[in-house]
Specification:
This protein is of the alpha/beta class. The chain folds into 2 domains: 2-122, Rossmann fold, CATH 3.40.50; 130-230. It is 60% helix and 9% strand. It contains 10 helices and 5 strands, in the order E-H-E-H-E-H-E-H-E-H-H-H-H-H-H. It has helices at residues 9-21, 32-39, 61-70, 88-94, 109-122, 130-137, 141-167, 171-187, 191-201, 206-230, and strands at residues 2-5, 26-29, 49-53, 79-83, 101-104. A 5-stranded parallel β-sheet has the order 2-1-3-4-5, with helices on both faces. Strand 1 (2-5), helix 1 and strand 2 (26-29) form a beta-alpha-beta unit. Helix 7 runs antiparallel to helix 8 (171-187) and helix 7 runs antiparallel to helix 10 (206-230). The longest helix has 27 residues, at 141-167.
Length: 235
């Protein structure tokens, strides 16, 4: 499901029409606060992407992104922000800080679908939503927290090994760390880390392993940070 957020009715109608024409399930909100209320419902936990305007009453796009990233339920949902030319600089600064990409208004079908496809079809997520992990592993919320904390501790150790191996250009140790990282990453749907680890393990030389290991190190840092947010108590 894609959640679209805009206080202009005509903009909502346009986004809804384009996305549904490409067979996406869509939900709509007219404010950031309404978007958060929708996402807080149990039946809305499978939101895969949020497309939001930046200028809105009550809670603008920047505040909405900050709220999303502060909650374990929504921290991993990617965001595409719609912006005017005058706000473009503000949005560009948010890319990488909760915003995956942006679109300058007026929105066209071609541009919107290209951006959406890039996020949903090609981008490997850091981790799946907490509720999905609990359901998939058939565990309770109480069991999730210690499991996440144990994974963080494991990743801390592996990160130290990986960092030292990269500094020492030691491809053998990089491959060893990649092998150890895959299982705990899989517990939380950490596909980006798993893909990066697989790339390391598919190398045939130490030099290539070290080069691929740099991407693995970056993905591992993102997963650890996401897990720290996800393992915080729900408010």
């Amino acid at each position: 499901m894609i959640l679209i957020v805009d206080d202009e009715p005509s903009a909502l109608v346009l986004l809804d029409m384009i996305l549904k024409r490409d067979n996406y399930a869509v939900r709509k909100a007219t404010t950031g606060k309404e978007a958060l209320r929708l996402l807080d419902r149990e039946d809305e936990q499978d939101c895969e992407l949020i497309v939001t305007d930046i200028r809105m009453p009550e809670m603008d796009g920047r505040e909405l992104v900050a709220k999303l990233r502060a909650s374990p339920r929504t921290a991993s949902i990617p965001v595409i922000m719609c912006t005017s030319l005058s706000d473009r600089g503000t949005v560009v600064a948010l890319v990488g800080q909760g915003v995956r990409d942006y679109i300058v208004k007026p929105v066209t079908a071609t541009t919107l679908l290209q951006k959406v496809h890039a996020v949903l079809d090609r981008e490997e997520p850091i981790m799946e939503p907490r509720s999905r992990t609990i359901s998939r592993l058939e565990i309770t919320a109480g069991e999730y927290m210690p499991m996440a904390q144990a994974a963080i501790e494991t990743f801390d150790v592996l990160d130290s090994e990986l960092t030292a191996a990269l500094l020492g250009r030691n491809g053998r140790v990089v491959r060893s760390a990649a092998e150890k990282i895959r299982e705990p990453a899989s517990w939380f749907g950490g596909r980006r880390v798993i893909s990066a680890a697989r790339a390391v393990l598919n190398t045939t030389t130490d030099r290539d392993a070290v080069e691929c290991g740099e991407a693995l190190s970056s993905a591992l840092a993102d997963l650890r940070n996401a897990l720290r947010i996800s393992s915080a108590p729900l408010r």
